[in-house]
Design the sequence.
């Protein structure tokens, strides 16, 4: 089963600390949503409010069209997969997975059969008679998933479930989680601070910071067309170039920066058309820099830049560059692995116009 | 080829560190115990210790009712005390862990074990003040006209049990509380999330998870209770002697060391049996 | 509604048990101030005469001093031996280390009465006179397992590299122990020490069987008990209790309060 989830103006205040600040969110049934952000950004608080372990100071939670704001966890169509898995150490896997069914009064034979089915789903059918301490971290994580799914929830909440696993296992579990979610069709809400994990599994990502939602959308949108400086920086490496809007001409705006004037199409401004005099931040990902002349399509030239340092990363060279026109600026750019790169080398830098995103400059909040 | 490796010197040093403790334990615990075990196989006749190996003391123990009764009394009292103490302490530990606000828990716990710091001998004595014929309870009840004659609540098994339970409720509250708070709160959340109500969560999750703690505390209670001389001697009167009292009698008036030694061995065997019965749970805790 | 009910029931229950726990102690302390010869109701009035009697009792004061010395010395020895053994067993691979650990812990599972009786047998056999020394030996036997267990369990593997670093920088074993290991483990060493002091201070049966003329406080109180209910016993009992609680409060507020935060 599956259900849509809506959060309306949720605020959670602990003493003097605002963990959630007027958050609203609409999740469709069957979506895989990832709440992404640094620790303390409010993502875990939001998950607890969805699961019913905390109630919002203000605001409402609606699941499957019903108001669940003050419904206890047991009565919600949600189950949570805990960060430490919280598998009952004294029970066999079969009994762990069957626990929720037992609480619903299902007879032993029936729930054992169902539990086996869910253990099979996560590939642990043959370990049904083992106890949690006999399992590896990845296996425990799977049992926790099976236990949470066994009660047929509409929404599954996952609290950094992959945090304790090593990198390789994590990648593997991400694929499995995604596959299982596709199979059962349940709405998944997954919390993590790892942006690669978020991109690997999410249908849509919610980027959070300081109790607010910074950005919300499919992974590609968030990476390519971020709608906040924080979101751009959190999703991967990015160069920020400050500038000021001079004036607008038809469908583009002229931005004055330290590397020269750049005429940007209005669609580069992801949060709305700019007004003259406005301070903006241009975001350029390192892999979007080109040597002038190598780029295709409409390009912006950024003038010459000197390589001040470089390292070979396998798929590319990662170079630090100093633009001749703005020696205070340090730019990180990726050069092709076949490139001839040396310190002190001077390159003519260019960027595809479509790859530049312009955001209102941040004042105060970082 | 007898080169002294780095590991050899290291090991020699390590032996040097561990040796004092080992020697102390062997010299003042193991050797005395072996002496006592040997002594239990001798006997005492007309003031002399006869160094002939036999099992007479052990046979005497099973034949003489006055001796054997000591063991059954000890076992009965110990079992009653252990069960009562667990039943009384568990709810208190639970209330402190679950119902008392976090910042007052340490205080609540310290208060619950504060009377530990009365002297051990004095603790039993103070129950005498409460329970004796002219003690607090009798005088209070008589003042309110609830009874006309003082109740006989001191100098019997009831008084011994009360004195013991008083001590072990404190001890068990401590061990069970420690066990309760180290459980991840996510166990409770997970159970609630999967639909268990408070009672089901307690019965299926919390109780089984605290069982090792309960059993450790119960075993400790058993060991300390069955070997105690002071409490029954002060509170129990002379009608139902427990094993340690009988051992002390052999030492005192009769100076029958071999018999005292034999009875001590029997006391130890009782503890060993209790350990074997509890071992299943005592082991889980390490896993 | 049910919440309120369980809350009321919880606190009522806790109140009852706390009452049970404190009843004898309250009676003990109250009647130590009894103006009269019997420490039972009715309370005749407030008097410090029994405290004066306690301080005037030379035997009681001597026993107090004896208890103090035995507790401190035996705990120091138990802690030192326990620490060295824990260091060796946690840091070096020794053959039969499981057996050694078992041996060191073993006295914990045996009744004090049996430990005392065994020692008494040996001392009698070799004609060694009973004294405070023999009591102290017995108290080290019961406290060594405790100290060893507490210190051993706090010697985590994460300390190994810190000690290796010290050794690498030129410290020998004793310097490592004194300057690195012991300070790192200070909270558990102190806990072991104070626990041993408490146990030794309060121990009766070993002190009773292994002493002759110089006795410890519990043994002296024991002989006071022969005179039946006596406010003087209340007074010495209350004194020990109140001083212990005061020491505990000071320790809680200074030492353990600090270590908890760090």
Sequence:
């Amino acid at each position: 089963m599956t259900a849509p989830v809506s959060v309306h103006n949720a605020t959670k205040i602990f003493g003097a600390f605002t963990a959630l600040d007027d958050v609203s969110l609409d999740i469709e049934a069957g979506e895989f949503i990832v709440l992404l952000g640094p620790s303390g950004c409010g993502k875990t608080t939001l998950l607890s409010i969805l699961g019913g372990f905390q109630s919002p100071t203000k605001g409402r939670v609606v699941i499957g069209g019903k108001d669940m704001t003050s419904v206890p966890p047991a009565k919600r169509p949600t189950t949570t997969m805990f960060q430490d898995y919280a598998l009952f150490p004294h029970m066999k896997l079969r009994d762990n997975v069957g626990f929720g069914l037992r609480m619903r009064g299902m007879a032993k034979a029936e729930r054992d059969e169902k539990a086996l089915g869910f253990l099979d789903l996560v590939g642990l059918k043959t370990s049904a008679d083992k106890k949690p301490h006999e399992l590896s971290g990845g296996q425990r994580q799977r049992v926790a998933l099976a236990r949470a799914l066994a009660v047929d929830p509409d929404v599954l909440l996952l609290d950094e479930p992959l945090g304790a696993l090593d990198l390789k296992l994590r990648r593997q579990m991400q694929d499995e989680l995604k596959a299982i979610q596709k199979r059962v069709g349940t709405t998944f809400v997954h919390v993590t601070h790892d942006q690669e994990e978020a991109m690997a599994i999410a249908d849509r990502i919610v980027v959070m910071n300081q109790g607010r939602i910074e950005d919300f959308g499919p992974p590609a949108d968030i990476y390519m067309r971020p709608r906040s400086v924080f979101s751009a920086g959190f999703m991967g490496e990015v160069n920020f170039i400050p500038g000021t809007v001079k004036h607008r001409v038809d469908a583009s705006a002229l931005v004055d920066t330290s590397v020269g004037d750049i005429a940007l199409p209005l669609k580069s401004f992801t949060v709305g058309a700019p007004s003259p005099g406005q301070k903006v931040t241009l975001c350029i990902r390192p892999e979007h820099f080109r040597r002038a002349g190598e780029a295709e399509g409409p390009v912006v030239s950024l003038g010459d830049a000197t390589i001040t340092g470089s390292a070979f990363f396998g798929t590319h060279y990662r170079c630090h560059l100093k633009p001749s026109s703005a020696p205070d600026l340090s730019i990180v750019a990726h050069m092709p692995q076949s490139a001839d790169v040396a310190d002190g080398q001077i390159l003519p830098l260019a960027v595809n116009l479509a790859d530049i995103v312009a955001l209102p400059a941040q004042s105060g909040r970082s | 080829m007898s080169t002294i490796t780095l590991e050899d010197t290291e090991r020699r040093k390590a032996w040097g560190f561990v040796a004092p403790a080992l020697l102390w334990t062997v010299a003042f615990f193991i050797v005395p115990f072996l002496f006592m075990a040997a002594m239990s196989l001798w006997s005492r006749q007309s003031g002399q210790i006869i160094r002939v190996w036999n099992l007479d003391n052990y046979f005497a123990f099973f034949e003489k009712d006055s001796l054997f009764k000591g063991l059954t009394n000890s076992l009965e009292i110990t079992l009653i005390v252990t069960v009562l103490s667990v039943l009384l302490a568990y709810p208190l530990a639970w209330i402190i862990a679950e119902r008392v606000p976090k910042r007052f828990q340490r205080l609540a716990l310290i208060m619950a074990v504060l009377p530990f710091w009365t002297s051990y001998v004095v603790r039993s004595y103070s129950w005498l003040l409460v329970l004796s014929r002219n003690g607090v309870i009798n005088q209070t009840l008589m003042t309110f006209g609830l009874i006309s004659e003082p109740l006989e609540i001191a100098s019997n098994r009831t008084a011994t049990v009360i004195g013991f339970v008083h001590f072990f409720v404190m001890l068990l509250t401590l061990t069970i509380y420690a066990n309760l708070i180290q459980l991840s709160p996510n166990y409770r959340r997970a159970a609630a999330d999967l639909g268990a109500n408070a009672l089901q969560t307690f019965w299926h999750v919390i109780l089984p998870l605290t069982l090792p703690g309960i059993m450790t505390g119960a075993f400790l209670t058993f060991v300390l209770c069955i070997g105690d001389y002071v409490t029954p001697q002060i509170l129990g009167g002379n009608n139902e002697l427990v094993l340690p009292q009988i051992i002390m009698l052999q030492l005192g008036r009769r100076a029958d060391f071999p018999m005292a030694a034999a009875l001590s061995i029997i006391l130890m065997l009782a503890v060993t049996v209790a350990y074997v019965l509890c071992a299943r749970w005592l082991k889980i805790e390490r896993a | 509604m049910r919440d309120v009910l369980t809350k009321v029931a919880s606190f009522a229950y806790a109140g009852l048990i706390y009452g049970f726990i404190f009843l004898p102690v309250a009676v003990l302390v109250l009647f130590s101030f009894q103006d009269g010869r019997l420490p039972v109701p009715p309370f005749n009035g407030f008097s410090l005469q029994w405290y004066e009697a306690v301080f005037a009792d030379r035997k009681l004061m001597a026993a107090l001093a004896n208890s103090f010395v035995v507790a401190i010395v035996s705990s120091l020895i138990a802690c030192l031996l326990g620490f060295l053994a824990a260091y060796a067993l946690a840091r070096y691979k020794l053959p039969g280390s499981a057996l050694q650990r078992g041996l060191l812990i073993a006295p914990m599972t045996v009744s004090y009465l049996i430990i005392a009786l065994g020692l008494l047998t040996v001392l009698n056999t070799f004609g060694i006179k009973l004294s405070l020394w023999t009591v102290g030996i017995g108290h080290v036997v019961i406290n060594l397992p405790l100290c060893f267990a507490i210190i051993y369990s706090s010697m985590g593997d994460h300390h190994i590299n810190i000690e290796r670093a010290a050794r690498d920088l030129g410290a020998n074993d004793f310097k490592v122990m004194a300057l690195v290991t012991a300070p790192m483990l200070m909270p558990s060493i102190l806990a072991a020490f104070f626990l041993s002091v408490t146990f030794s201070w309060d121990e009766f049966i070993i002190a009773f069987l292994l002493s002759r003329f110089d006795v410890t406080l519990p043994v002296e109180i024991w002989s006071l008990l022969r005179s039946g209910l006596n406010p003087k016993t209340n007074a010495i009992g209350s004194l020990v209790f109140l001083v212990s609680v005061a020491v505990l409060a000071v320790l809680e507020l200074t030492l353990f309060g600090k270590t908890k935060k760090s």
